[in-house]
Amino acid sequence: MATSWRVTLFLCTLLMACRGPSLASGESECRMARNSQPQTPSSDNGTAGEGGHGGGTVTTLPIVTWRWEHVKDPYLVALWVLVCWLCKMIIEANHHVTNIIPESALLICSGFILGGIIWGADKVQTFSLTPTTFFYYLLPPIIIDSGYHMPNKPFFTNLGAILVHAVIGTCWNAASLGLSLWGCQIGGAMGDLNIGLLQYLLFGSLMAAVDPVAVLAVFDQVHVNDVLFIIVFGESLLNDGVTVVLFNVFDAFVSLGGPRINAAEIIKGIVSFFVVAFGGSLVGVAFGIIISLLTRCTYKVQIIEPGFVFILGYLSYLTADMLSLSAILSTTFYGVFCQKYVYANMDENSAHTVRYAMKVFANGAETVIFVFLGISAIDKLIWVWNTGFILLTLLFILVYRFMGVFFLNWFLNRYRLIPLEFVEQVIMSYGGLRGAVAYGLAVMLDENRIKEKNLMIGTTLIVVYFTVILQGITMKPLVLWLKVKRNEVRDKSLLERVTNTLFNHTLVGIEDISGQIGDNYFRNKWREFEKKWLMWALMKPSVRKKQDQIFDVFHQLNLKDAVEYVAEGEQGGSLEFIRNESAFLDFKKKFEDEYSDMMPDIMTYMSNGTMSRDPIPSVSLEMHEQTMKAMREAEEVNAHHLLDQHLYKSRKEHRHGFSRNNFEINRDAKEVQEIFQRTMRNRLESFKSAKMGVTPPKTITKHTKKEQQKMPNGKSMDKKKSSYSGDEDFEFSEGDSASGYGPSCTPFPMRATNRTGAGIDNPAFMLDLDPTDSLQIPPWLLESELNSSMVAPSQRAQERLPRTPSNLDRLTPLRFSIRSSDTQQTDGDLLPPPPPSPPPTDNTQK
Amino acid sequence: MGALQSLPGQAEYCDLTAKTGFSFEQIGVLRKRFKQLSHNEETLRRDHFNEIHDLTFNPIRAQIIEAFFDRRNFHEDGQGKVREIGFEEFVVVMSHFRPPSLHMTEEQREKIRKEKLRFLFNMHDTDNNGTITLEEYRHVVEELLSRSGTLEKETAKSIADAAMLEVASISVGHMEPDEFYEGITFEHFLKLLNGFEIESRMTIRF
After folding, report:
1. Distance (Å) from the C-alpha of residue B192 to the closest C-alpha of chain A?
2. What's the complex ipTM?
């Protein structure tokens, strides 16, 4: 309620403010000053003319003046954007409504209301969507966004189908609609209209395009399967280019006039069609290359790094437009091409910023577009009603869309490996939503040459409303009713990714064996080419090696874990457990005792000093020789670090400051490292709890302490040991959980020192560690430096961290500290799965 | 020459069509390819596959080739490896990659799905004990990443480990003491790859 009040309030302000100019410049006055039409300052207006510099002679020094005219244009823009977004907010707040009616439809309806209010106040429509605003300010962000976030693989896999639909389908739609309407006019179905064949074709071409904005808005909420989605969406994106071209060609024809069009002109038209489409795409790719190269060096200006992506995208749009090539295609391919390299080259923060900002702009622009589509309707001037014309247009659009889609799919299905099913074709046809592009083009029509311009605008609006609102609302029920294969929204597991890669290679291999040249063959060739040339040219050397799908998932999973871990920790109280170093000191002794009898070899090993710390083998038992050396040297630094952490902790978090160039997210690099290590271990623990048959984490809390004490190092381990004793490499058994310590660890520590990696930790990520470096830099810092962008689930830093400045020889892994704080807390604690048999603090103190 | 060969071929073709679902035309194409690969011999050996030029760059070449000599993929209940295969086996193995027909019942779809996944599973499960052990899985991942040349063996290992870990936590939520996770069984494999539209994706144009 409060929000709607606010909206009304803003509206009132607006209305009062706008009365003056609206009287003066009438309907042509656009809503947004971005068009910066020269204003005729209406000095007679009471509110606007009051102050400012415009007033005649200054008799006295004004303390405050009212300078509406100065700020009017940007002010109105800002206000309108605000109002539109507020509308969206209100709509989104009513979730049960958006479940039934798509947001785009609701936005249009709110546009009706706003338009009505303005109309009621002004008696004339002051604001409407102008083509300039639409094509130069509102559309580009949306197109950049869709290009940049285009799922490339399905897009290129289905590129053939997409192109067929976008080019042939659109031409078919345009031609059939134009011709049929013309036929109907001759047949006398629409009364007396002053429209010739060419004008009808022009109208047909502007109505032909399926609108990406509308399609995306509706299909986003429906979740149809990938193939269907990409075909509809890809078609809507590419056919925008096609429509604009068609529109221009027919527009030129109309101005040439019927008699002067001969075969040569028509051929020129066709040629220009291809030039415009391909030229536009090429411009886009060129800009994509530029941005990729540019992002190789932007790391020095990280703070504006994301901006480059936007600016070049916009420039690609404008450049293509300047060359009268297809701007939409240009920007689309710009995004499609550069996404991979840009994402890889930029810092992770920048990449996130780009994605997020793109969504902000695109979503914002989309909202504004829909609202203004609604507002534009409330205008007496454009409504020239001709029932026959409007109804016939609607009918033809629907019918020909169905016919075109079915025919093209029938044709395509003969060559498709997986044919599109009938229901999918129905959805495709039904998804032919028209939107703002059609409206923008209609408004661009030249009134002098096309007498019935207003009728066309009105009809376009009706079609847009019909498709977006009615078809939008019925889309979801239809998809459900027809049982179209839908997409599950979920994360892919690592196994799936691995299998997927395996699977792709298998397909290529089998294709090679069968001697056929198929899609996989080309994809493979392209991938090789890309790896060899494009990546070399367009990617930073440092990130090239990380370009592996599997690795990427691995990374993502680790990140996710880290986030979850922190979240869980926060739920449980605080992150204090991460830094808690005192509680586990007692364990150390305890464990030492416990293990001394079980693992004599370890003890001797330790005592001879080679292995100066961490007698308790954990999963993270990952001891490079070099780091061992480094560790000792780093001790002092460690101590400093610890002191540092404790002493400055509180202040660090409240450090204020401002710098335009330096944007630091307040996070502790070391802390992040620690978190990663912990989460890796958690994964392992949960695995082991499954594997080793130790009771899963949650039941642990129910155990009495005695039970817990009984469990560790038990006999069950011996059995288990035998089960994989032959398996030298089976390092999962390196117990991180206390219960796993005994048998499984005995053989390992020696080996661990020689081997680069063991178990589940990620030694590979640290192989490039330079021992000399690590002498000076604390290991966690070192790691964060080397692997700043990737997860380094190394346990070393964590192992060292708990060291207190005092000269303790060995350390217990931090997890004990977790556990101790855990056990001291309530049972409902949602801390990550504690290892099976945590010896609680009080036990050890006994 | 072609006419002469096609005469005795027809009967065999009928047989194969029934068995694999390929059309005559497709079998003809495959026949040609088979001849080409085997240098006009009646059987194919591993060397013949090793000679295929395009295949040399495939990271999992070994697994793919082995799949052709694996009895489990011949739609029989056999086990173990063979040393050479005839045309029939060749086609049968190839038929795992046939696109599904348009109109299928749910059971058919499920059956095809299982068959295809079984093929993949067999590629992992080299010792044919019904589970993909960690060893086997690591091996596959290593091979997969070996060609990229930039990731070390250790990375492969840790990725395999993490994947295995995930599998274990997904498929076996709770295990009794004394149990340990031996590896991925086929049932788990099926379950894990539930969202993987293999029936439509594991297809090749023949």
Report:
1. 8
2. 0.83
